[in-house]
Amino acid sequence: MAQKYGKVYLVGSGPGDPELMTLKARRLMDTADVIVYDQLPGKQILDTMPEEAEKIDAGKHAGDHTLTQSEINDVIVEKAKEGKNVLRLKGGDPYMFGRGGEEAEELVKAGIEFEVVPGITSALAATAYAGIPVTHRDHASMVTFITGHEDPTKEETALDWETLAAFGGTIVIFMGVKMLERNMNELMKFGKDPETPVAMVERGTRPDQRVTVGTVGTIAQISKEQNVKAPALTVIGDVVKLHEILGSMI
After folding, report:
1. Claim to verify: residue 61 and residue 104 sit in the same structural domain
2. Residue range 112-122: mean pLDDT, rounded
3. Tetrapyrrole methylase domain spans which residues (predicted)?
């Protein structure tokens, strides 16, 4: 008789506010046999994980990973092969700089059934909570999302800073705190106006959310003075000007 494997759910928990977690994500979390979780979902969500589920901390703090990505892949596959339904709980959306694609590939190789459950990305939710619409008829008709923390084993960056510097819309950088100064310098090197508005949104949608505002030319120094810490989004573009108006109403 063929062995029956469990199913794996790659679930996005959303940006941090528990009320922004989807109904499907909540239902699957409440019924999972095993939950392999990151820290990015936040304490408010992690504290509601069911007591009866086996819980495995995958870490994923900034600069501090309890498990390597390879080890996470192995754990997910191993638990599913034990016949357990596994919830892989991630912050934001699994396929938005969440390495969900890599985990999905490993599941395909192992012959394990899986399902992806999208989550609200912080690029849309944290900015909204900060009073910064990423598009606006008068300020931005385009938006692009990039990572500020590429794979360190890459020989060359995959980011086209020259194109980004000329980009006329909103740029949202994930995981960009550590490399903020370098990223801003790259933009200015290729002609980005140093006076372009920038906002750093820390712990977006959570009770302790904080927004720090500057420009491409000043935000690196301001963020140091304000001790900006990950997790934080970097938002670049004229839409940041709306924070002063819309952020005060939130």
Report:
1. yes
2. 98
3. 7-219
